[in-house]
Specification:
Elements lengths: L9 E2 L5 E4 L24 E5 L6 E7 L3 H6 L10 E2 L3 E2 L5 E2 L1 E5 L5 E5 L5 E2 L9 E3 L12 E3 L2 E5 L3 E9 L2 E2 L5 E7 L7 E5 L2 E10 L3 E8 L2 E8 L10 E2 L7 E3 L2 E5 L4 E4 L4
Parallel strand pairs: 4-10
Antiparallel strand pairs: 1-2, 2-3, 3-4, 5-8, 6-7, 8-9, 9-11, 12-13, 13-14, 14-15, 14-16, 17-18, 18-19, 19-20, 19-21, 22-23, 23-24
Length: 266
């Protein structure tokens, strides 16, 4: 199964497709090249090649405890994969990375050229793992701005993880005061080039939605939320798995029965 959070597939310039797989059968018996013997990749971070107009598993990463996580419904399939721009590590090497997180509260960073495959005893082969980085797991995907990754996990705050020398910070540089009840939020960023960044996120409040706007450089600074206006002027009904969409100076939010449009009042 593909992500339940509405996150789309990610693709690189070589035509490879990346996604997080949901719980299901994984063949722990591996072939000589480290792939599941019967082609079953349940609960894995996948890379699929389109070479020759044929879909084929090209690489993957699967956590050492994938079976217990699948059995407990703690799989990766609730989240989406995000490809990062080329990164330079401390040795001057160019790294092609992707980021993903699911229900197990960890953030995984994979090297798209060597994702790590499966080892039954450890996750040492994965490029980077941030254990318990998201207190409630991710039913969403991340956003990226100015080399910073933004996540809003379930029941968690919106968090900013800067990238330095091709590694995510292991603790967030800042986080929002507000927390985001199930299913968390998929943030979106608007900006004027690399300046004046605003990260937008929708909070679910049991039937009522709240649109939040934060300074990308300092998440405790909330620039706006849709509960601020008097007489419920900016209220809207909530919906699951809806990223804010920014275009033409406005923010568009899909609800269960409409589209709410936010912009400057004249």
């Amino acid at each position: 199964a593909l992500p339940i959070s509405g996150a789309g597939l990610a693709g690189d310039a070589q035509g490879n497709i990346f996604f997080l797989d949901a719980n299901g059968t994984f063949d722990s018996t591996l072939t000589a090249n480290g792939f599941p013997a019967h082609g079953d990749f349940g609960n894995a971070f996948m890379k699929v090649s389109t070479s020759g107009n044929t879909l084929a598993a090209a690489d993957y990463f699967a956590a050492y405890n994938l079976q217990s996580e699948s059995d407990a419904d703690q799989d990766l399939g609730s989240g989406g994969a995000m490809l990062l721009p080329d990164q330079t590590d401390v040795h001057g090497n160019t790294r092609h990375l992707a980021v993903g997180a699911g229900k197990d509260t960890n953030i995984y960073v994979v090297d798209r050229d060597n994702m790590g495959k499966f080892n039954a005893s450890s996750n040492n082969a994965v490029y980077q793992e941030l254990p318990n980085a998201l207190s409630g797991g991710a039913w969403s995907m991340a956003a990226l701005f100015n080399n910073t990754v933004y996540y809003a996990g379930t029941g968690d705050h919106l968090k900013a993880f800067p990238i330095t020398s091709a590694l995510l910070a292991t603790t967030p540089a800042s986080e929002s005061a507000a927390s985001f009840a199930y299913p968390g939020a998929t943030p979106s960023v608007s900006s004027n080039g690399a300046q004046n960044g605003i990260v937008w996120a929708i909070e679910n409040q049991g039937g009522a939605g709240v649109l939040h706007a934060y300074d990308t450089t300092n998440l405790p600074t909330e620039l706006y939320d849709s509960n601020q206006a008097p007489n419920s002027r900016d209220h809207f009904s909530d919906n699951k798995f809806v990223p804010p969409m920014i275009a033409n100076g406005k923010v568009y939010v899909g609800t269960t029965n409409s589209v709410a449009v936010f912009g400057l009042l004249h």
